[in-house]
Each structure stands twice: as C-alpha cells, then as structure tokens.
C-alpha cells in the first residue's frame, strides 16, 4: 500500500476477487483468514458491498458475488468492442468477409462487435447483439475448444459450415490470456468451405485483439 491508495477499498476489492474465485461462497471466518484481518472488518466490508448489491449472503451466512457485478460487467462490452475494432476492420478488409468479436453470455455466444468489408459485392449480414448456443457456430465452438485446451497451450482455430445459416461458413479463434474475458474472433462468409488462408489469419486477429485487451 502507498500513501495514494485506500486500504479499505483495497480490502473490498480483494473480497470481491476472492468471492469471484469460488463457486460455493465464503464465510466471514474464511474471508477473515484469507485477508488477514479480524472478523469485524470483514463484516463492515460485506455490509458496504451488500448495500451496492455487489455481494449477497445466503441463509447459511456464506457470502457470494451479487447481481450488481453483472450491471458493472455490462459496461465492459463497449470497452472491449472499442479495443477490438481496429483488428476486426483489418480482418474484414483482408478476407473480404464479415468479422466479429463474440463473448460468452451465460450459455450463449453473444456478438458484441461486427465489421463488414467495404469492397465486396455481397457478404453475410451479421449484427452485434446476435446470440446463439456455444455449441453451434465457429465462434462458440472456438470458445469451448479453448476451455478444453487451457492446459495444452493455444487451441488454434475452428471451422464450421452451415451451423447457423445455410450456405455460410465460419472460422474463429479464441481470445487467450485475457483475464476476465472469454470470447473469440472470427469471420463468417457465403462459401461451401473456408479458404485455407483464413484460419491462420483469424488466429492472428484473435492474438491482436487479445494484445489490445491486456
């Protein structure tokens, strides 16, 4: 801690991080031990965070992350979208296909940024806000692949055809190494198969977006 920082705020943020890292919540005693402070301090921190709906406590007294965190999380999308747009524009223009950034939203894949090429005669209409199950389409499958390969390095890119729209093919690569963000970068095109050079190019774009978000 330095003279310019707040010890109370630091502890409150540490509480949120600890709760975010557990699925079953933590008791006041457990938080006290992890933070190295007495129970009275933890009670005060939890009471303050509860007032802002950032923490909730169940009937057993275990503290968990509150729904207020979701409201804050929604504001992350515009920031992520802004950081990703340069790489998406370059990808769309280079490939001549609609490029998109997709993030996980519950059990769905949600497109939060879309860039269409400017020079093609036709391309797939794909809009920000479009959602689909994670296990359908290249964007969602790339994210699932990253979950399965976290211990084995970069999972590479995913190719699909006709899973979300008849006659359309997709290629996507997951965002890797970005704390707190789970998503993918990809393209969708009207083609029976994805050209060979597209997969590696999408992989490069995903790395560019990941670098911009770190």
Mean pLDDT: 90
Low-pLDDT segments, ≥5 res: none
- Count of beta strands: 8
Structural class: alpha+beta
Q: What is the N-to-C order of secondary-structure elements (H for helix, E for strand)?
A: HHHEEHHEEEHEEEH
Radius of gyration: 21 Å
Range of helix content: 40-55%
Q: The biggest beta sheet, please? A: 6 strands, antiparallel
User: In percent terms, what proportion of residues is strand?
Assistant: 15-25%
Strand order of the largest sheet: 5-4-3-8-7-6
Shape: elongated
The count of helical stretches stands at: 7
- How far apart are the termini? 23 Å
Task: Summarize the structure in words.
The strands form 2 sheets. A 6-stranded antiparallel beta sheet has the order 5-4-3-8-7-6. A two-stranded antiparallel sheet has the order 1-2. It has 214 residues and is α+β, with helices and mostly antiparallel strands. It starts with 6 loop residues before the first helix and ends with a helix. The longest helix is centred in the middle third of the chain and has 20 residues, at 76-95. It is built from 7 helices and 8 strands; from the N terminus they run H-H-H-E-E-H-H-E-E-E-H-E-E-E-H. The mean pLDDT is 90. 33% of the residues are buried. Helix 2 packs across helix 3 and helix 5 (76-95) packs antiparallel against helix 7 (198-213). It has helices spanning 7-20, 28-35, 39-51, 68-74, 76-95, 138-148, 198-213, and strands at 55-57, 63-65, 98-105, 108-115, 131-133, 158-161, 168-174, 183-190.
């Amino acid at each position: 801690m330095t003279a310019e920082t707040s010890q109370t705020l630091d502890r409150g943020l540490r509480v949120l991080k600890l709760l975010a890292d557990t699925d079953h919540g933590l008791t006041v005693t457990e938080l006290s031990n992890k933070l190295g402070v007495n129970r009275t301090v933890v009670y005060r921190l939890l009471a303050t965070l509860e007032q802002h709906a950032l923490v909730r406590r169940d009937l057993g007294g275990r503290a968990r992350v509150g729904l207020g965190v979701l409201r804050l999380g929604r504001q992350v999308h515009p920031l992520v979208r802004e950081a990703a747009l340069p790489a998406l524009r370059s990808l769309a223009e280079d490939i001549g296909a609609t490029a998109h950034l997709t993030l996980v939203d519950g059990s769905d894949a949600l497109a939060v940024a879309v860039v269409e090429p400017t020079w093609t005669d036709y391309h797939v209409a794909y809009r920000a806000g479009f959602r689909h199950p994670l296990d359908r389409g290249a964007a969602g499958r790339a994210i699932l692949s990253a979950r399965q390969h976290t211990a084995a390095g970069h999972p590479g890119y995913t190719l699909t055809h006709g899973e979300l729209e008849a006659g359309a093919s997709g290629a996507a690569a997951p965002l890797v190494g970005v704390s707190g963000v789970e998503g993918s970068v990809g393209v969708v095109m009207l083609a029976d198969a994805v050209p060979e050079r597209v997969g590696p190019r999408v992989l490069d774009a995903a790395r560019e977006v990941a670098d911009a978000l770190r």
